[in-house]
Amino acid sequence: MIPFEDLLWVVFYAALAALVVAAVALGLLYGLRGRSVATQLVVVGAATVLATISGIVVISFMMLLNEHDRSVVLAVVTSAGLVAMAVSVLLGRRLVAANRVLVEAVRADRFTPPPDAHLPAELAELSRELAAAQDRLGAAYDRLAAAHEREQALEASRRELVAWVSHDLRTPLAGLRAMAEALEDGVVADQSTVQRYHERIRVEVERLTEMVDDLFELSRIHAGALRLSRRRVGLADLVAEAVAGAEPLARAKGVRVRGDVREGLPVQVDTGELGRALRNLVVNAIRHTPSDGAVEIVGDVQDGEARLTVADACGGIPEDDLPRVFDVAFRGETARTPGGGAGLGLAIARGIVEAHAGKIGVANVGPGCRFEVRLPLHT
Ligand SMILES: Nc1ncnc2c1ncn2[C@@H]1O[C@H](COP(=O)(O)OP(=O)(O)OP(=O)(O)O)[C@@H](O)[C@H]1O
Ligand SMILES: [Mg+2]
Question: What does pTM read for this prediction?
Answer without folding.
Answer: 0.65
